[in-house]
Design goal:
Layout (H helix, E strand, L loop, with lengths): L4 H20 L3 H14 L1 H9 L10 E3 L2 E3 L4 E10 L8 H15 L4 E10 L2 H21 L4 H18 L5 E11 L2 H17 L2 E5 L2 H9 L11 E2 L25 E6 L5 E4 L9 E4 L6 H16 L2 E6 L3 H8 L5 E3 L16 H15 L4 H14 L24 H18 L15 E5 L6 H19 L10 E5 L3 H4 L9 H6 L6 E7 L9 H7 L2 E5 L4 H7 L7 H6 L8 E6 L2 E9 L3
Parallel strand pairs: 10-15, 10-16, 11-13, 11-14, 12-13, 14-15
Antiparallel strand pairs: 1-2, 2-3, 3-5, 3-6, 4-5, 5-7, 8-9, 8-18, 16-17, 17-18
Helix pairs in contact: 1-2, 5-6, 11-12, 11-14
């Protein structure tokens, strides 16, 4: 190895001092000579001490081509000379496989460090040099039209010029892969294996020279990049954290109910209810997208796997029809064969029940606060006669109507009381008693065309079920799953002052009920849309060619315009974008249907 200038200078000084000793026999010069010899021997350590870079525990490394080491460990150094491809050379699936392969190759060594140094270069000068090279290649091609190699180079340079002109900023770079091992031979062997693996991915690398390692270990952050390698951002796909889509937390997808398959890598996607922040589900998509099929299959699995009670509200009749077609055992409930049971005390005091009744009537009939307050007041007065409490009838309220001066208010409340009396003042079993526990129950609402009465039945069911299980122990998985197909029929009617579904959803798993809602658009969720979307444990957005729909979805998931334009607007039936609560990273999935 050639002596550097410093060592040569010190050697000349030593020769000069030796000459003086011989001529003048000056003994003190011997001491000076010994000091200089010590400086030569330990000049590296002395240099670091004066710079403040070495502590009492630091080691002195021996530097060789491709490796630096001491008695305890060794570090082989590879320098990436060129990455031949860029993002645009791959489709999404192949790019992901390449990135996975890249890190698997690095995993050959237990401890690997990647260092990237970038330095800005003048864009105009770079474009000028590219233009000169392109002009030279054109001359070569004119003289030899069959020169395919020159044609490929020209095409590549023209592509780079185009990308730089479109605001891709070029830069110089040095990329180091440092492989840590126990000793020199092991470090070099691992580095050589990694080098060969990288070549298989089109990544050219070489062992660093002694001077390059010195520059790396001594003054890495002060060193000027002398490399001639110039790159654009898309040419370094392996080291960027954005090169591969991040998946939601693995714990949410590794156990539980099978939802379907990832459209990108065909892996199974499950939903772990016990790890989910909330167990409610929202399915959004137009007619024909596969919502109902998904709800039916999911309900069946929840019943089979967890032995839980399922209640499906069937407005159109297709849920009952398909379950019977698939020969799934179900309990069909006709609500007109039972009484509502609103005035039935049950497991909670009737005074507390009155507050629930006020909410049910307020949302079902879209009452004003004044109208609901009048009904609440008269019901409360009826309760003053404790002896007749068990005989309470809606018709009993009629004796108070003459107290209402406002004729319109009197007629409207009279109408509501008549409807309630027809549905509740009956000698029948209360509606909640029609439910078979641990079975699939279908509430058949197809014969009820009035939306107010539909809402009245659904809201009554929700509160009755809540009252029935609210005193039970809380489990990791809800005891009851309530499925609301065409959920807009009740969600749009909910008012933020007296919410029912939104209130149950906000309370989470603590009340033992999971609500599974399906609707066509986010707008259908009404003024409480944010509450539903911020609290459902799992949200599914199914195929919808409306860009406005996907722009709205962007508020709740991490998607961009490219994904919307290229994929989301062209989803097929049974395909969906899914999002787990607390993790905005979505997955494109093919749903598993019956």
């Amino acid at each position: 190895m050639r002596l550097d200038v410093t060592k040569l200078s010190i050697l000349l000084v030593i020769i000069f001092l030796v000459g003086l000793i011989i001529i003048y026999r000056a003994l003190y010069l011997i001491v000076v000579l010994l000091m200089i010899l010590l400086i030569i021997q330990f000049h590296d350590r002395i240099f670091y001490v004066f710079k403040g870079y070495v502590s009492q525990t630091s080691s002195y490394y021996v530097i060789d081509n491709g490796v630096f080491y001491d008695d305890k460990k060794a570090n082989a150094v590879l320098i990436i000379d060129d990455i031949l491809t860029n993002y645009r050379d791959y489709n999404d699936v192949y790019l992901k496989s390449q990135i996975v392969s890249f890190y698997k190759i690095l995993d050959i060594a237990k401890d690997v460090t990647i260092l990237l140094r970038k330095e800005h270069i003048d864009k105009n000068n770079y474009l000028e040099s590219l233009s000169q090279r392109a002009q030279s290649l054109r001359i070569v091609i004119e003289n030899d039209p069959s020169n395919e190699k020159a044609k490929r180079k020209l095409e590549l340079i023209q592509n780079i010029i185009s990308r730089v002109e479109k605001e891709e900023i070029p830069f110089k770079y040095e990329l180091y892969v440092i492989i840590n091992a126990k000793n020199k031979s092991e470090a070099l062997a691992l580095a050589n294996t990694i080098k060969q693996g990288l070549e298989g991915l089109g990544i050219k690398s070489r062992f660093a020279s002694i001077n390059e390692i010195k520059g790396l270990t001594k003054n890495f952050f002060d060193k000027k990049i002398l490399s001639t390698k110039v790159a654009l951002p898309l040419q370094l796909p392996y080291i960027t954290p954005f090169s591969i889509e991040k998946q939601p937390k693995h714990v949410l997808m590794n156990h539980g109910v099978l939802l379907g398959k990832d459209l990108d890598n065909n892996s199974l996607i499950l939903w772990n209810l016990t790890e989910s922040e909330n167990t409610h589900i929202l399915v959004t998509g137009p007619t024909g997208s596969g919502k109902t099929e998904f709800l039916i299959r999911l309900s069946t699995l929840l019943n089979i796997i967890y032995d839980r009670t399922i209640i499906l509200f069937d407005i159109k009749g297709d849920i009952k029809y398909r379950l019977l077609k698939y020969r799934v055992p179900i309990n069909i409930i006709n609500p007109l064969m039972y009484k509502l049971g609103l005035l039935y005390e049950g497991v909670i005091p009737i005074t507390a029940r009155l507050l629930q009744i006020e909410r049910i009537l307020y949302n079902s009939f879209r009452l004003t606060k004044l109208q609901s307050s009048v009904i609440y007041t008269y019901l409360n007065r009826l309760l003053e006669n404790r002896l007749l409490r068990y005989r309470l009838r809606w018709k009993d309220l009629e004796k108070y109507f003459n107290e209402i001066d406002d004729i319109q208010l009197r007629y409207y409340i009279s109408k509501i009381v008549n409807i309630l009396s027809a549905l509740d003042d009956l000698d029948l079993i209360p509606l909640v008693n029609s439910i078979n526990e641990k079975e699939i129950n279908v509430v058949d609402l197809t014969t009820i065309k009035n939306e107010e009465i539909r809402r009245l039945i659904i809201y009554t069911f929700l509160y009755e079920i809540y009252n029935k299980i609210s005193l039970d122990n809380v489990f990791d998985i809800p005891k009851v799953f309530i499925v609301l197909d065409e959920a807009w029929t009740i969600l749009k009617a909910e008012n933020e002052d007296y919410p029912i579904v939104a209130d149950l959803i906000k309370r989470g798993r603590g009340h033992g009920i999971s609500i599974i809602m399906a609707t066509q658009n986010i707008e259908d969720l009404g003024e409480l849309a944010n509450i539903y979307l911020d609290n459902v444990g799992l949200a599914l957005f199914m195929n919808n060619g409306d860009r406005k729909f996907w722009e709205e979805v962007k508020r709740f998931t991490s998607i961009d315009d490219e994904l919307i334009g290229n994929r989301l607007m062209y989803l097929n039936k049974g395909e969906a974008l899914i999002r787990f609560l607390g993790d905005p990273r979505p997955i494109l999935m093919k749903l598993d249907l019956l």
